[in-house]
Design a protein that fits this description.
By secondary structure, this protein is an alpha/beta fold. It has one domain (about 5-230): Rossmann fold, CATH 3.40.50.300. The protein has helices at about 40-50, 70-75, 95-100, 110-120, 120-125, 135-150, 165-185, 195-200, 220-225, 225-230, and strands spanning about 5-15, 15-25, 30-35, 55-60, 65, 80, 155-160, 185-190, 205-210, 210-215. A six-stranded mixed sheet has the order 6-7-8-3-9-10, with helices on both faces. The protein has a four-stranded antiparallel sheet with strand order 2-1-4-5, with helices on one face. Helix 3 packs parallel to helix 6. The structure holds adenosine-5'-triphosphate and magnesium ion.
Length: about 230
């Protein structure tokens, strides 16, 4: 059984349909990327998993349907979410931003905090700093760290490299790779940056106008130059 099964998922904003019959499975321990250009439906897919969009079809975590559950229950079931342009509290400290992430997991705050700070030592070093004064890469780590404060079994990260300088892409990729290798955490990211997705993910789904057009391993898609050219012009 896959960790996460998405089955014929369609998503709607009022009458507008943003996802059409999307099906995919994510195995435990995998790193998966959804790639696609603006408006392809990447964020909608993550928001659908989080119970924030009207959907038809099914989304199952360890065989249990998440559809119709409130977001708090979905988080408690084991889904961590680092949304795009994470709404960090700019004038709160790094530490307090992390603690906000623990609001549904009050039992193990100390354990979760030390796990997150071990993983991203910079967050411990800068615990008292306001996030507004951090670099983009550090803020991305706070955002991911905050999502980890509930000790999820799958981590969703929407466009981890967006707005960051290319020189910190590697730091983010390394952090996510280490998280996966050291804890076995399953990771689902979205990306417009194909190269970033290819270096990080093992499985890739290419989305276009609310559908999955192509799926394969990173190795398969790396070979597929025509595909990269068709979707991304390079
Ligand atoms: N809140 C909303 N209300 C109405 N339509 C929306 C809403 N959010 C997204 N859409 C539409 O749904 C479609 C998919 O958008 P989505 O944000 O999921 O794409 P995306 O792949 O995440 O794009 P980007 O790379 O720009 O973040 C688009 O046509 C978009 O206009
Ligand atoms: Mg998006």
């Amino acid at each position: 059984m896959a960790l996460l099964d998405i089955d014929k998922l369609s998503a709607f904003y009022g009458k507008a349909q943003a996802l059409q019959d999307v099906s995919l499975s994510i195995a435990e321990g995998d790193i998966v990327a959804l790639i696609g250009t603006n408006g392809a439906g990447k964020s909608t897919l993550l928001d659908s998993i989080m119970g924030q969009v009207t959907v038809s079809g099914d989304i199952r975590l360890k065989g249990e349907s998440l559809v119709g559950k409130p977001t708090s229950k979905i988080v408690a079931a084991g889904v961590g979410y680092a949304p795009e342009r994470a709404n960090l509290f700019a004038h709160m400290s790094v530490r307090n931003n992390l603690l906000v992430g623990a609001y549904t997991a009050r039992d193990n705050i100390a354990d979760n905090l030390s796990r997150v700070e071990n993983l991203f030592p910079v967050l411990a070093e800068r615990a008292g700093q306001e996030t507004s004064t951090q670099s983009g890469g550090e803020r991305q780590m706070v955002s991911i760290g905050r999502a980890l404060m509930t000790n999820p079994s799958i981590l969703l990260v929407d466009e981890p490299t967006i707005g960051l300088a290319p020189k910190v892409f590697n730091d983010i990729a390394e952090a996510l790779r280490r998280l996966n290798a050291e804890t076995g955490l399953t990771i689902l990211i979205t990306e417009q940056n194909v190269n970033f997705a290819l270096t990080l993910a093992r499985h890739i789904h290419v989305m276009e106008t609310g559908r999955i057009r192509v799926s394969g391993t990173a190795d398969e898609l790396r070979e597929d130059a025509a595909l990269a050219e068709a979707y991304f012009g390079h």
